[in-house]
Amino acid sequence: MTTEKIHIDVLTLDSVQCAACGYMMESIAALPPEIQGLIDYREWSIKTPSGVARFTALKGRVLPTICIEGDLVFQSIIPQYEELIDALAERAPSEAVRSRLLALREAGFDFDRIRENLEKAGAGRNTRTAG
Question: Quick check: is 56 in a domain?
Answer without folding.
Answer: yes
